[in-house]
Every structure is written in structure tokens, then in C-alpha cells.
Amino acid sequence: MTSAETVVARIEEVGGVLAMSGKNIRVRLPEVETHLLDELRAHKDGVLAVLMKREQIPSMPPSVRLLRWEPKPAPVMLTHYAVVTNVRRFVSMTLLELKAAIAGKHWQSGHRSARELVDRLEQCGVFVEIESASAGEGKARTSSA
Prior knowledge:
mainly alpha, 39% helix, 5 helices, Arc Repressor Mutant, subunit A
């Protein structure tokens, strides 16, 4: 890793944001991290090169045509929507995934937590409760109807 890449990584690790503005660098840093500005100034040309490399459009896979390239600044929150067309089958499969999640077999639960699976069931009108008995604890409620 070059010195410039190290500076960029350190700034981003503390929650800073870097952006190119012509031949200048726009930076937003938490106040307690302003000491990183000196490092940024010392490696300005290298940091500009790193930022320019990031801005390059990656090659598209075969049979894919880029229509527009307007990446948003990070962080970007992604959402997931799904439509269930066979509710009975979905519920049956989700219950199997829930069983796997409770057993700690996360690869069999689609890497979803028990809470996520309970939420999926509730969205289909199936309300369940997971009971766990740990030492000194009684039943722990994960979901309610």
C-alpha cells in the first residue's frame, strides 16, 4: 500500500469522506481527526491519483451495456424487496431456515438471523415465538403476535 493509499484509508477509517473537485480534494473529517489534514497535504498528488483511479468506470461484463454512470457518495443504504407468490411454501421453507438459525447452522438459514426470519414470517401473517431457556433465565421472547 502506498503512502497515499494509507492516508486515504486512515481518513475513511475515522469516518472521513474524500472527493475530487477538479485538481483539489474536498475532505470532510470529524473535528478530532483534523490532524490528518497535514498528511493529506503532504501526499496530495498521490491521493488525487488514488481518487482518480476510483472514478474510472470499470469494464462491463459481456452483454452488459452501461446506460448511465452516476455513483452516489458513500454510505449508500440498500433495501431489499421481495414478493411471495406461494405463501405456504415460503412459510415452510422459512421455518426450516429458522430451525437452522436456532441450531447455529447459519449457512442453512441463508445467513439470516432468527430475528430476520421471524420478521419474514410475520410479514406473511405467521406469528411465532422463540423460547430459549438459559441458566437463570426463563423464556426469552423473540417475537409476539
